[in-house]
Design brief:
The structure holds two protein chains of two kinds. Chain A is α+β, with helices and mostly antiparallel strands. Chain A contains two helices and eight strands. The chains are: A alpha+beta, B alpha+beta.
C-alpha cells in the first residue's frame, strides 16, 4: 500500500462529474477527501489522500491527468520558512491536523509535511509570514 | 550582601558566576537561598515578544542645499515618519504604515508592512527610500528630497521604546460566536484557543517583581545590542494585586528602553503582522539581575508554577473596558498546551517566543562571562508597589459641537 496526498484542480466542465467515485470503483483506490471547494460552473479544488497499490495509484493519477485535471503533490502546497519562524507557538492551537508542533522541552516549533492538510488556517495566524501557500 | 561594584570587579577578573533565570531555579532548590546568593553573582533573563510602543529616531544628515524636514512630511519606504522635531531628525513608529495600506477596509487586514519592518530592514543593513517634502525657508531652501539611505549613512539611529517588557499579561480568549483578530493573535469563537504573551519564569520583570535591582540606568541586552532602561514605561502600573512572592497577578510594571540601533541585529528586532490588528515590532530584551541579597535571589528563582495570569475575554470585556477575569492560570499550565476554562479544555498558543527568550538569557550570560558586558548601577529606582502610581483610563470630557 502506498499513500499519496495530492491537490487536484479541475476545470468548470468537470465539476459535475463523479470523478472520485470512479477512482474508487475502477482503480481500486481508497480515497480520503481532506478539503474540497467544488462549486458548479467554477474551477474546483480538492485535496485528497489516495491509498492503494503503487500500480493502481499511478493509473489513477494518469486517469485524472487524462481528464485535464491538474495534479500536484500536497507537499508543495504549504511551505514553512524555518528562517522566518520565531518559535512563538501562535500557530499551534490553529493547526487542526497536528502538522505544526512544538517540542515542550526545547520549545522548537516544527512543521510535519505528512500531517498537513493544507487548510491554510496557519497562514494568517503567523505574525512573521513564516507560512506560505504555494500554488 | 554584595554590591554591583564588587560584582563588576569579578566580571572584569573573569570569575563572576553567571546563570540564567532557568538555571537559578535548580540551584536554589538544591543549595538553598543562602548558599545560592553567596555563590551566584548574576542571573540573566530574557524575553522576545511583540511590543507596540517601540520606535526609532534618526538624524539623517544635512543635504546640500539644506532641507527642513521638521514641520514637513517624510516617509521611509512609504511609511510616514514623525517630523515635529529639528531639521533632519525624524522618528519612525513601529505601528506606522503606508497611507496606501487598506487597513481593515478589506477585513481582516493583512498589515504586511509598516514601521517595524522598516526598522528590521535598516538593522539588517538594507537600503530604504527616504522621501521628504518641506516648505522652504531662507536658511533651509530645499523643498523636496528622494534618496536611498542605509543605517550607516545616518549620524544617529536610536531605538527608543516608550513601553516594553510588560510585567505579566492577560491570557486572551474569545467568548463570542465569531472569529476575532486582536494584538493577542487570532482568537477563534467559543474559546477555540487561549493566547498568552510572557516568557514567565525567564521574563525580566517577573524575576525582579518589586524592581529592587532594575531601575533607571540599568544596562540591558536590547535587540542584540546594548541599551539602557531610561524610565518606567508608559502605563507602568506597579500597585496591582500581587501574590505573596511579589509577582503581580495582572499586567503591572513596564520599561522605557533605548539603545544604539546600529549595534543591533535583525534577529532580535523583527517586524510582525497581526492579521486584522496591525503592525508591531517584536523586540528581544535581556536584563541582568545582580544577586545582592537573599530577597533578590528568592525572587529570581521564581518558577512558572508560581506565576499567574488572568484569562480575559477579548470579544466584549476587553474592548468595552469591563473589568473581570474568567479565571487565573499559571504559566506552567499555559505551557502544557491546554488549559481548562469554565469546564472547557482550550488549546494554548504563545505570542512571545520562549525559545528565543532562552537564547537571549544565554547570550547575555555569555557576554558577561566574556567580560563584554558590565552591570550598571541604577541612578533612580522605578516606582514600585508602595508608590501609589496607577495607570488610569482617559477622563473623557467631550467637546460640545457648535450649532
Amino acid at each position: 500500500m502506498t499513500n499519496k496526498r495530492i491537490v487536484l484542480t479541475f476545470p468548470p466542465t468537470l465539476v459535475g462529474q463523479p470523478i472520485t467515485s470512479y477512482l474508487v470503483k475502477e482503480h481500486d483506490l481508497m480515497l480520503n477527501i481532506l478539503r474540497a471547494n467544488v462549486t458548479p460552473n467554477e474551477e474546483g479544488r480538492m485535496v485528497v489522500e489516495l491509498s492503494g497499490v503503487k500500480k493502481a495509484l499511478d493509473e489513477g493519477i494518469d486517469y485524472l491527468k487524462g481528464l485535464g485535471i491538474n495534479v500536484e503533490p500536497l507537499a508543495r502546497d504549504i511551505k514553512w520558512h524555518a528562517d522566518k519562524c520565531t518559535h512563538c507557538t501562535a500557530c499551534i492551537p490553529a493547526c487542526p491536523s497536528g502538522a505544526m508542533t512544538v517540542d515542550r522541552t526545547t520549545w522548537d516549533v516544527s512543521f510535519n509535511r505528512d500531517r498537513c492538510i493544507a487548510c491554510e488556517l496557519c497562514i494568517s495566524v503567523c505574525p512573521f509570514n513564516a507560512l506560505e501557500i504555494q500554488f | 550582601m554584595k554590591t554591583i561594584r564588587e560584582i563588576n570587579e569579578k566580571i572584569r577578573n573573569g570569575n563572576a558566576v553567571v546563570v540564567t533565570a532557568e538555571e537559578i531555579i535548580d540551584i536554589v532548590a538544591k543549595k538553598g537561598i543562602k548558599k545560592a546568593t553567596r555563590e551566584v553573582d548574576v542571573v540573566t533573563t530574557g524575553t522576545f515578544g511583540p511590543m507596540c510602543s517601540s520606535s526609532a529616531y534618526f538624524n539623517v544628515g544635512h543635504t546640500t542645499p539644506r532641507i527642513k524636514i521638521g514641520g514637513g512630511t517624510c516617509t521611509l519606504n512609504n511609511v510616514p515618519c514623525y517630523t515635529g522635531l529639528a531639521a533632519v531628525d525624524i522618528l519612525l513608529g513601529a505601528t506606522a504604515m503606508p497611507d496606501s495600506d487598506p487597513r481593515n477596509s478589506v477585513y481582516p487586514g493583512e498589515f504586511r508592512y509598516g514601521g517595524a519592518h522598516v526598522i528590521e530592514e535598516l538593522v539588517a543593513g538594507k537600503s530604504v527610500r527616504l522621501q521628504a517634502e518641506a516648505y522652504g525657508t531662507d536658511c533651509y531652501p530645499r523643498a523636496s528630497l528622494d534618496t536611498h539611505i542605509e543605517l550607516r549613512d545616518m549620524n544617529e539611529a536610536v531605538l527608543f521604546n516608550p513601553r516594553n517588557c510588560y510585567q505579566n499579561y492577560n491570557v486572551a480568549v474569545n467568548l463570542s460566536d465569531k472569529i476575532i483578530y486582536t494584538y493577542m493573535g487570532t482568537l477563534r469563537p467559543r474559546m477555540g484557543n487561549a493566547n498568552y504573551s510572557s516568557a514567565g519564569q525567564l521574563s525580566p520583570l517577573m524575576n525582579d517583581p518589586l524592581y529592587k535591582t532594575i531601575g533607571i540606568g540599568t544596562r540591558i541586552f536590547l535587540g542584540g545590542g546594548v541599551g539602557h532602561v531610561v524610565w518606567q514605561g508608559t502605563q507602568h502600573n506597579p500597585c496591582v494585586a500581587r501574590l505573596e512572592n511579589g509577582v503581580p497577578r495582572f499586567p503591572a510594571g513596564t520599561l522605557a528602553v533605548m539603545g544604539d540601533l546600529k549595534q543591533m541585529s535583525s534577529r532580535w528586532l523583527k517586524g510582525a503582522s497581526f492579521t486584522g490588528y496591525g503592525v508591531t515590532l517584536t523586540v528581544g530584551i535581556g536584563i541582568p539581575i545582580p544577586l545582592l541579597n537573599e530577597e533578590i535571589t528568592a525572587h529570581a528563582a521564581v518558577r512558572d508554577d508560581q506565576i499567574v495570569a488572568q484569562i480575559v475575554d477579548y470579544s466584549e470585556k476587553y474592548p468595552q473596558c469591563i473589568a473581570g477575569s474568567l479565571g487565573e492560570v499559571t504559566y506552567a499550565e499555559l505551557k502544557t498546551g491546554s488549559i481548562t476554562v469554565q469546564g472547557k479544555k482550550v488549546p494554548t498558543g504563545g505570542i512571545s517566543s520562549y525559545k528565543r527568550a532562552r537564547e537571549i538569557a544565554a547570550e547575555l550570560k555569555t557576554w558577561i562571562q566574556d567580560k563584554k558586558f558590565l552591570l550598571a548601577e541604577p541612578v533612580a529606582p522605578l516606582p514600585s508597589a508602595d508608590s501609589g502610581v496607577k495607570c488610569r483610563p482617559l477622563n473623557e470630557r467631550p467637546v460640545k459641537k457648535k450649532k
